[in-house]
Amino acid sequence: MRDGSPVPQSHEERQTVVDQYQNEESFVLDAHLRAAACHGSIEKVELLLSTEGIDPNSPDEHGSTALSWAAYQGHEEIVQLLLNVDQINVNVGNVYGGTPLYVYSERGYEKLVQTLLGRGADVNAQGGNHGGALQAASAMGHEKIVQMLLEHNANINAQNGPHGSALHAASAMGHDKVVHMLLEYDADVNARSGPNDSALQAASAGGHYKIVQLLLEHNADANVQGAIRAASAGGHSKIVKMLLEHNANAKVQDGTQAASARGHSHVVQMLLEHNADVQVQGELLGIALCAASVRGYDKIVQMLLAHYAVVHAQDGKFDIAHIEASGMGHDKIVQMLLDRKTRLNIETIFYLYSTKTPPLSRSLSSYIQKNMVAERDAAYNKTLLHWAAYRGDQTATKRCLDLGAQIDDTDGYGMTALHLAAENRHLKIVKILVMANAHRTILDSHGRTALDCARIASSDGSHDCILEELRPPAQSNTRLSSRRARWILSSKLHK
């Protein structure tokens, strides 16, 4: 008989099957037993256990036995049947989970846990997703099983699995009754473990107010790194308040940054009232002001600026260009920061000129310094004079010229500031550049002069005044360059 065949019903049929099994090699019999246990075939398991030479503890290539497979698959009757075998090893785990004790502690099967403990199951065996039986029962909130395990000397402070300790697991998952029981059994309330570092931080992150209260009543350290940050990030204002009332120091943690990044203005206000340091760097998005700016929380930006948050671009603590990193375009916040006389670096000014339209870009002239006018942006090879002309920013154009900008420098397309002003029909900029002796006959990469660009832009005759400004004082009879000749010919062909 192989797995999948009908289960024998009569005594004669059963004896025939037993006789067939007797002729099998022992390792084949053991494989049949594991398969039957895994698939829940109790009749086959009974037959195989009555066969001479069967080893119920024989593991497969992954180390799993019939008992561990039956436990993992949840076949309780087969587990009970196997546990009645005198020589059964109850401490062998399954490749996909822990020992049978772990499996049933996690699933909350109290009777099976009690039976396994009575058979000498190792209460501190490691394995499974939670790391051990006590951590699993604690994480799942199975109070009676937690108590059984503790009564059988489970190591209450063992550090296994993603949560670390059992107290940490119960705190993270919000099981206050389990937390209370573990504390009564003297669990280390300040043990550091797992991704949230401590039980207090885990409970704070989950917003489990009652558990936070329990932990603090049992002398949890309110200043444990990350507790305020975790509560602030989740917007759990009641927990933040409780931590502050237990002397948590708002200055040394990045709770303000965490709350700012997620828009929890009420938490930000509370922390600022407790003298939080708004310059503390967070794991993401930098300081609080940067975090709120990137996410577009203008109310929080106003709060932080009112509490003298330092805004610096050049020292790396903050860069207004970062505001636009998410592509959201929070113009109101950009303007707020500009109004605070932020020190801008050249990359930030280039960024704002290239992504913003007037009037915002016209606010930048006062930030232009002498050492900036020769710099070029990476994307278009433009100088600040190019951008000022392109945007029609008269004040910035004059400032660049006053600071020594080269008026006839060309960008990545061979265009001068005069080309850009003409093409975008900025008459006043054209006048400023012409009066500053900008050359009108320079050709761009398409063979066009600034006058040509103006003609294209003013094809409807609406900006003839720009054409007048750009006409040379006297028409020249000099020979046309080949590049300009090609452009003129191309223009005529397309008319």
Automatic annotation (TrEMBL):
- Keyword Repressor carried by entry: no
Residue stretches of each ANK repeat? 62-84, 96-128, 129-161, 162-194, 195-227, 380-412, 413-445
Residues annotated as transmembrane: none
Q: Does the keyword Transmembrane helix apply?
A: no
UniProt keywords, alphabetically: ANK repeat, Repeat
One Pfam annotation, family name?
Ank_2
Q: Which PANTHER family match?
A: ANKYRIN REPEAT AND PROTEIN KINASE DOMAIN-CONTAINING PROTEIN, ANKYRIN REPEAT-CONTAINING PROTEIN-RELATED
Entry protein name:
Ankyrin
The organism encoding this protein is: Aureobasidium mustum
